[in-house]
Design brief:
The chain is α+β, with helices and mostly antiparallel strands and 112 residues long. The chain has three helices and two strands, in the order αββαα. A two-stranded antiparallel ribbon has the order 1-2.
Length: 112
């Protein structure tokens, strides 16, 4: 971490601990278990180093245990957010397929 001494400072570690105690939901992938704090506006682009309003939970080097992504590596020093892209429609829920199967079963005609 050349040039990033603020990441090991006591003030930063305290701010990160408070942030992760409030919420561990990663702002990048939306899954729980975030273990790092991300600068929303990167320090390299003028973001505040220790401002809690410039920090958000994110999965660090160990990655997300749910989707396997390395969220902090994916974001890099970008400033914007991008839409979550996964292989699962999380909002559809398991009842979506169950309702379709039930509908298919009710419309089938019985064969003699």
């Amino acid at each position: 971490m050349a040039g990033r001494k603020e990441l090991t400072s006591y003030a930063y570690r305290q701010t990160r601990a408070r942030l992760l105690a409030e919420s561990d939901t990663c702002h990048w992938c939306g899954h729980g278990g975030a273990d790092a704090a991300d600068h929303l506006i990167p320090v390299s682009k003028g973001g505040a180093k220790l401002d809690p309003d410039n920090l958000a939970p994110i999965h660090g080097v160990n990655g997300c245990t749910v989707c396997g992504r390395k969220c902090n590596n994916e974001k890099s020093d970008g400033t914007g957010t991008r839409p979550l892209v996964t292989s699962v429609d999380w909002y559809a829920g398991p009842w979506k397929d169950a309702a379709r199967i039930a509908l298919d079963a009710s419309t089938e005609t019985e064969r003699p």
